[in-house]
Amino acid sequence: MEHNASEGDDCTLYWTDSSVTLDRLLGIKPYQKINHFPGMMDLCRKDMLAKNLNRMAKSFPKDYNIFPRTWCLPADYSDFQAYSQAKKHKTFICKPNTGSQGRGIFLVRSAREVPHGEHLTCQLYISKPFIIDGFKFDLRIYVLVTSCDPFHIFLHQEGLARFCTSHYCHPARANMEDACMHLTNYSINKRSENFVRDENAGSKRKLSALMRLLEQRSCDVAKLWLDIEDLVIKTLASAHSILSHNYHACFPRHSKPACFELLGFDVLLDHKLKPWLLEVNHSPSFATDSPLDREVKDRLLSDTLLLVNPGACERRKAESSRRRSSRASKQSKECRNVQAEEEAQRDLRTLRYEDHHLGGYKRIFPQEGGDKYSQFLQHSSSLFQETAASRAREECTRVQLQELYERQGGSGSRAEPRGGLEGDSVGENRRTMNRRTSSRFTDHNRTNKLAAGRPHFVPALAAVCEHWEVEGAREEEKHLRWLQRSAQLDPAKKPSLSPEAPGTLGLFPPLGPQRQQSSSKVCPSESYGDLHVIAAPAPIHKRPS
Fold first, then answer.
1. For residue 493, what are the contacts with CB-CB under 8 A and spacing of at least 6?
2. How far is CA 261 from the centre of its chain?
3. pTM of the predicted model, to two decimals?
């Protein structure tokens, strides 16, 4: 039975196969769940996935060797052209950024063959795939994410192996247009007259049957599973900051996870049995046009709903919890500590429930030995701090603080900034401030107001960044006022900002002649009596690449 939910439906679970609007996300009540995370399209669009993985690969080249070399055209056309000229024997596969079911995919041998100006994602073609019975194939791996901050990631141990229907040959001019030889998409190969329906030897098989076949060929299946798990975790870690910030902007008062996501990872094995990520599917198909599909997907959906447990959050309890959370922000520190302890106990009960209702799933994160992924999560979380504006402000602050300490050196006392703000970036200041608040979601109501009326959740990220810049500037101004008092400056002398000086004001004592000359290279400044005004670079709002 099908049911199309309307805006007024008071349901417990909202399931949709399309992208979710910001209005729908903001309308989710504390006792409801929706099957998409805001910001997940940064992994499921081919171009955004490539940008995230390329960014991580620049910082961790050995660890992120999990996907073929990829270019986003036309932005990376020059780099792609230089590579194709240097590697003339290579083949490339080009895909539309938002395509599906194999539509619009083609192979090329040179950058000259790519239509100029087209928005495409171009990948290095893996010309030596693992072959079974003469056919190329890929794996459809199902991954469930029940929480994005912190990550709770599960991998289903049953999936699909999808085979081509033409015997594989190394790509050449004569066969590059044979889609049934090079593309493993089921929607393409099912139309071929060579398509075979057999669970164990057909063109579409269960993942468990394929793994048994690999074991019979003396392949290390256990290592293959570990490599696939590693690939999944690293892929999701590349977008951790985007998922976390979008989630908290949309659901500031939810005590339980409001979202979950069932993803389809397409993985290709090369001739050495190394898994390579091809793409991530936002809404994998649950069509059941064969008994094999029904067997695999019925169990998958059943295990998913059991693990997500949408009926666990009762409406009355959820609304009562929301009211307590709202009151806790105005209560004493002891009351807030009690509430934090209750939340920790609730999280522990959730983990226990998940461990006892895994079904065909396996928890792959968090788990023992998962500390090795911390560096990737931390690097991804620093995405919004590593901007030119934040680095310039940090450098200006350090130079001026050093001069202040030198001036106070004669008294033998060093003015220590409150809250450990010395040399911190705005993002680090924000983390310190958030740890002192009663709730990790305190300031996101204003963020939602900034983002209200936007057509999609991705533009909300710009509103979040804008809100954070304002909050960071306020904290910086408070800190600088404290520095002014500690230096015993005259508070009556205040600077006036010239309209030609864009950026953020900072109030510091005047510099000595030598220090003034060196600091002027950092950012423009002007003197106003006993005060020194620094015009820091204006913040640059760029969407993370």
1. 528, 529, 530, 531
2. 13
3. 0.70
